[in-house]
Amino acid sequence: KDFRNSVKPNWCPGCGDFSVQAAIQRAAANVGLVPEELAVISGIGCSGRISGYINSYGFHGIHGRSLPIAQGVKMANKDLTVIASGGDGDGFAIGLGHTIHAIRRNIDVTYIVMDNQIYGLTKGQTSPRSDVGFKTKSTPQGSIESSLSVMEMALTAGATFVAQSFSTDLKDLTALIEKGIQHKGFSLINVFSPCVTYNKVNTYDWFKENLTKLNDIEGYDPHNKVKAMQTLMEHNGLVTGLIYQNTEQKSYQDLVHGYSETPLATSNIELTEEQFNKLVKEFM
Ligand code: SF4
């Protein structure tokens, strides 16, 4: 089935987000989904527009809140594959609390962050992923704050699936998204997705020079958490591939009593007017 729709993305030519969109569409098709089985929930930012560019259920939410919405959708309808997406400002600044708690909750949602180390939609300010010394309109003398190490943070928060990719590696990125969708629990996929308009430091060439593929590290085992953390620290977080996966831990859905039998979407919630009014009164 085709996950493309007729909406033309209004991202700048060359923006890394185009590849992420293509990878989501390909991965969804490759795992055998049809558009009615996928929901893409996004936050605010250039990347937040992605939910409107994919032929599926979609919800363009509010800043930093794609994950609360995505988790609500998944809890209401377990039969939907739910992808949450947004930028690094969305997920690692205003939405960081939601990110950490969704990770430790291990709810079955795939979260794809388009990480360009800057705020693009608001025309170029420092984000929590910008490096020290990074000059923008908000930091004309260079950022004095250190960059958030998101992959390490995810591991310490108890993530069961942590991966990273580069938007030009379409094949690898697609394969990681497929794995994330198939993972029974929360999967975080951080994608280096260059902002060609405002970030003149972390360019395509810069990433090509600085990224290391985990597949090229002999003996790398994504089931070894200690090794995963060590490798991230040794490479300053600049690695791509499946960093860590734990398939043993149960997902939130597996642990919620009665979830699989009676998700909201298939529950019989027909109420008489009297019952409805009584319910409303209880909440007032
Ligand atoms: Fe992409 Fe940057 Fe343009 Fe936004 S401003 S669409 S992030 S290139």
TrEMBL record:
<keyword id="KW-0560">Oxidoreductase</keyword>
<dbReference type="Pfam" id="PF12367">
    <property type="entry name" value="PFO_beta_C"/>
</dbReference>
<dbReference type="GO" id="GO:0045333">
    <property type="term" value="P:cellular respiration"/>
</dbReference>
<dbReference type="GO" id="GO:0016625">
    <property type="term" value="F:oxidoreductase activity, acting on the aldehyde or oxo group of donors, iron-sulfur protein as acceptor"/>
</dbReference>
<protein>
    <submittedName>
        <fullName>2-oxoacid ferredoxin oxidoreductase</fullName>
    </submittedName>
</protein>
<keyword id="KW-0479">Metal-binding</keyword>
<dbReference type="InterPro" id="IPR011766">
    <property type="entry name" value="TPP_enzyme_TPP-bd"/>
</dbReference>
<dbReference type="InterPro" id="IPR051457">
    <property type="entry name" value="2-oxoacid:Fd_oxidoreductase"/>
</dbReference>
<feature type="domain" description="Pyruvate ferredoxin oxidoreductase beta subunit C-terminal">
    <location>
        <begin position="195"/>
        <end position="260"/>
    </location>
</feature>
<dbReference type="InterPro" id="IPR011896">
    <property type="entry name" value="OFOB"/>
</dbReference>
<keyword id="KW-0786">Thiamine pyrophosphate</keyword>
<dbReference type="GO" id="GO:0030976">
    <property type="term" value="F:thiamine pyrophosphate binding"/>
</dbReference>
<keyword id="KW-0460">Magnesium</keyword>
<dbReference type="GO" id="GO:0046872">
    <property type="term" value="F:metal ion binding"/>
</dbReference>
<feature type="domain" description="Thiamine pyrophosphate enzyme TPP-binding">
    <location>
        <begin position="44"/>
        <end position="191"/>
    </location>
</feature>
<keyword id="KW-0408">Iron</keyword>
<dbReference type="InterPro" id="IPR029061">
    <property type="entry name" value="THDP-binding"/>
</dbReference>
<dbReference type="InterPro" id="IPR032686">
    <property type="entry name" value="PFO_beta_C"/>
</dbReference>
<dbReference type="GO" id="GO:0051536">
    <property type="term" value="F:iron-sulfur cluster binding"/>
</dbReference>
<dbReference type="Pfam" id="PF02775">
    <property type="entry name" value="TPP_enzyme_C"/>
</dbReference>
<keyword id="KW-0411">Iron-sulfur</keyword>
